[in-house]
Amino acid sequence: MSGLYEYFSARRRRCEELLAARLPSASKPPARLHAAMREACLGGGKRLRAVLAYAAAELCGAQTDAADDAACALEMIHAYSLAHDDLPAMDDDDTRRGRPACHIQFGEATAILAGSGLQALAFAMLAESDLPESRKIKMLQLLAGAVGSGGMVGGQALEMEGEGGDLTAAALETVQHKKTGALICASVQLGAAAAGCGDEKTLTALTRYGRHLGLCFQVVDDILDHGKTETANSVTVLGAKRATEKAGELRDNAVAALAGIENAHRLRGIADFVARRKK
Amino acid sequence: MSGLYEYFSARRRRCEELLAARLPSASKPPARLHAAMREACLGGGKRLRAVLAYAAAELCGAQTDAADDAACALEMIHAYSLAHDDLPAMDDDDTRRGRPACHIQFGEATAILAGSGLQALAFAMLAESDLPESRKIKMLQLLAGAVGSGGMVGGQALEMEGEGGDLTAAALETVQHKKTGALICASVQLGAAAAGCGDEKTLTALTRYGRHLGLCFQVVDDILDHGKTETANSVTVLGAKRATEKAGELRDNAVAALAGIENAHRLRGIADFVARRKK
Questions:
Q1: Chain A CB contacts of B143 below 8 Å
Q2: What is the H or E stretch that residue B246 is in?
Q3: Cβ within 8 Å of B, A 179-198
Q4: Is the CB of B24 less than 8 angstroms away from the CB of A150?
């Protein structure tokens, strides 16, 4: 497993260096906005979405740099979603990864604008990429679909609309797939699109892998965060024992989706990492 | 001028019908989010940005439908910016166009998500357009650049960062160009891109027109809104007399930029409309 650990660290570092170079400088006006965008994006994180894009692109035979734009765009979208999630009107969290949340450091208005600016920059980066136009269009379609009202934003809204009520296991899975799973699944798909993968068997396998992995990630999140929130989650709906079993099943399903796909060892390893992670 | 009035009304209606059809139904979950997106986008407005995109595309020789996706995307971005601007943490406005603001009708969290969802949908619509890929990419580049921290979002941040302080006329113009002008200029540019215009002389003329028109729009806004806000604006910085003169000069500059461009009568008429509008 040390191979995967080194791979994960190397791609995380690569993405963080690119993000630091591509985000507007905090000394350039509007300085406060740029500082907030940098803090939201560079203040830590596993960079799981970036690593998934790199691993999927490399599985499809591309050089690492083909996935650079996708990796940065995915992390910018993820960072925007966290900056907005933490707002008083949303989850009202004062801290993020042990640091003051974006709206605590910069104020609510700047946190809102920083999130919106990061979303725009993510799309700009894909549109300005050096990749062939057909790959860029595919990546833009996948990302826009994954973050809009049919994906991440829709999942956050569904979660709010369902707050306080009882959720069936199936309804909870819909929320989790949209809220968290859609962007994680899109990470794998963007990597394949960046590589220009046109093989239907591979694309179907990667999409199935991404769907199971995204749900697995959220179920594990719910187990790790249990007690921190009142929102319906895997533990409140399924119970702790069943939630833990389900995380393992989803990991197994993600790995099984890769059967017959060559060079999938890293994605298999990432599924294991997601299922076993402790934070 | 009755020709322009009819043209403006016809294109506005066309865009509104498309928006009503393309925005997710308010009966489809997440229903509250979708209702908020529809209210933010369909609750009135001049549709100036859409009409500019249509007029520019038609000037470049395209059929009207070539600009449909650009027109809808521009209006979605504009609607998102208004829904977020009205939030308590931003301008804290309870009404918009005589109706309760989005956050009053649906709550702050839903208004934030609706704005973000509209931004994503705008990019999705361009990425999914039937136009040739090279035109789509150009449109996506222009739109992402106009709405990010170098454009609209940056202008809103600059305005906040400058609040309470004195602004020079030049600094105010920078804020106005980013906050309002960038999206208006992009509207003309997206129309030309949708038409596949590759003529440098036309593109330069349209961009100059768009820049002057965008500033003209904001100066007139400041004159019409004078007294409603404490923020530095054309009237507080230049005085009412000079602001009125400047609006006329900017209109003249916009019209002059079109010299030698054929079929520019509608854009000239729109410049007149923007300079003379009473609301």
A1: 123
A2: helix B240-257
A3: none
A4: yes
* B59: CB partners within 8 A, 6+ apart: B191, B192, B202, B206, B261, B262, B263, B264, B266, B267
Inter-chain touch B117–A160, beta carbons under 8 Å:
no
**A43 pLDDT above the threshold of 80:** yes
Which pairs count as long-range contacts for A85-90, CB under 8 Å and 24+ apart, including other chains?
A85/A156, A86/A111, A87/A111, A87/A112, A87/B89, A87/B112, A89/B87, A89/B89, A89/B107, A89/B108, A89/B109, A89/B112, A90/A156, A90/B109, A90/B112
pTM of the model: 0.97
State yes or no: pLDDT of A1 exceeds 70: no
d(CA B209, CA B260): 13
ipTM above 0.90, yes or no: yes
CB proximity list for B79: less than 8 A, separation 6 or greater: B40, B41, B45, B118
Q: B257 with B209: CB under 8 angstroms?
A: yes
- Please state, for a pLDDT cut of 70, what percent of chain B lies above it: 99
To the nearest 10 degrees (0 to 180), the angle between helices B68-85 and B152-161 is 20
Q: For position B88, which CATH number holds?
A: 1.10.600.10
* Closest to A58 (Cα-Cα) out of A45, A72, A71: A71
- Interface check for B78 against chain A (CB to CB < 8 A): the answer is no
Inter-chain touch A112–B90, beta carbons under 8 Å: yes
Domain count, chain A: 1
Domain of residue A204 covers 2-276
pLDDT in tens, B37-87: 999 999 889 999 999 999 999 999 999 999 999 999 999 999 999 999 999
Name chain A contacts of B116, Cβ cutoff 8 Å. Answer: 80, 84, 115-116, 119, 147, 153
Question: Between A and B, how many residue pairs show a Cβ–Cβ distance under 8 A?
Answer: 154
A113 touches chain B (CB under 8 A): yes
Residues B116 and B76: their CA atoms lie apart, in Å, by 10
Which of B109, B117, B123 lies nearest to residue A160, judging by beta carbons? B109
